Amino acid sequence: MALKREYGAEQPFWKLGPFKVRLPLVHYRFEGADYLQGLIMCAVCLSIIPLLQETLGMPFEVALAIVVLNGILYCLHVLLGDPVVPGWITPAIPLLAAYVTSFEPGVPRIHALAAFEITLGVFVIFLGATGLAQKFIRYVPNAIKSGVILGAGFAAVMMIFKEGGRFEKYPYTITIAVGIAFLILFSKGFAALRQKSKFWNRFSDLGILPVILLGIVIAPIFGEAPWPEIQWGISRPDFITLFKEYTPWGVGWPSVSMFIKAIPMVLAVYIVLFGDVIQSQALVADANMVREDEYIDYNPNRAHMIFGLRNSLMGMFGPDISMCGPLWAAMQVVVCERYKHGREAMDSLFSGAGWFRFGTLTGYLLLPIVTLTKPTLGVALALTMLIQGYVSVRIAVEKSFNQRDIGIAGVMGAVLATKGAAWGFAAGIVLTLLIYGKDFFKDTSVLEGARPYMGVPTPASEQTAVTE
């Protein structure tokens, strides 16, 4: 029986330095609805496997081991006091994939990815422990922020449509699936339908999962993938091969120069993920306003230390292209909306977020789910990247406050997507210095006295769409 909290108090916890430890069934109750939804939505998490195979040349079972390890570390957030559903750093995935593939296949790529992820983790932990996160991001010019996000959007689309890319392998399936996904996610008509119908509102909460399931049927019909051969039992992630052949412990540690080369990429990724921290805080605060029976302590510095720790551990024990982000925005929204229905629906936000991630972790280990989705995981990844590309471009434009910002962001984004983070930052810094001069570090919205260039901010539901 989970410990009970008094009305208006915090959910029970054990104090551990800056962390607040909460154990399932001890400090919070079982939430069946969230656990079952996690079981279903694990299909989205599995879609990173084809990119791991393509980038690092690893067998399916080794890539699955990385997904499982990442899934275990997802549980650290609720365990240590962060009431969120964590996920990938989705917008930065194509940028990191391009960075890693600029190295020779084999050990050099493993070293590049491990050095990057360890450096990112240490950097984020430092910002969280010192409380410097907000100060760091405040001094980055808007044009450069926009350029990084725009470059991520360009890279996402290029990844799918490049020569030999996924569109050439699944042209009909991707065309149909993307069309339906964009209709569900971004269409004004469907948004109006969702407001009128509880069924379609619940349907939209599943994000791209229905489209992924549709792809499982469409791809074999067009001869673009085999029909799934569903197997029963428990999946077999290959942790032994992962440790021996794809981690620094097995292939040797990266050189100091590898860590130095990773710094521009780390800065670019941090600019992308900082927005997720802000969004986490906003979503938790909004939910907490409705539920007066629970006080929720969301601490951005603590969140930094937790996802920084996750990245460092993954860099050492399972280097991962998807990285470890602070938020899966779409599922956080779903959990928060159910939380608003009252204590009977969800006792605590920690119980909902915690059991959702226990559900996804269980799903990775169920062979029927893994084998059902395996033939079309490439389609799921293409969906994720194209949706993220659309959203990234919108956000990048809306973060710009004038035509100068748009121009700088456009050039920087194109250079970043084609030549890498170091060249992209160089282009952005030089252009911003030439155009703004001594006002380089000043907020361009203050300089211009203007609203964002496009005027209307992107709805929260679209900012990271349904991707992790």
Task: Give structural notes.
Strands 1-2 form a two-stranded antiparallel ribbon. Helices cover 67% and strands 1% of the residues. A hairpin with a 2-residue loop joins β1 and β2 (19-21). Residues 453-464 have low confidence and may be disordered. It is built from 26 helices and 2 strands. The chain has helices at residues 32-46, 49-56, 60-74, 76-80, 93-100, 107-130, 133-138, 142-161, 166-169, 171-186, 188-196, 198-205, 209-221, 239-246, 248-251, 256-261, 263-290, 300-317, 329-339, 349-364, 367-373, 377-399, 403-419, 421-436, 444-448, 460-463; strands at residues 14-16, 19-21. The protein has one domain (31-463). The protein is mostly helical. The radius of gyration is 21 Å and the shape is globular.
Name its key features:
468 residues, mainly alpha, two-stranded antiparallel ribbon, 1% strand
Structural class: mainly alpha
What does the average pLDDT come to?
87
How would a textbook summarize the main sheet? 2 strands, antiparallel
Give the ordered list of helices and strands: EEHHHHHHHHHHHHHHHHHHHHHHHHHH
* Inertia-based shape: globular
Low-confidence stretches: 453-464
Could you tell me the number of beta strands? 2
Helix content: 55-70%
- The tally of structural domains comes to 1
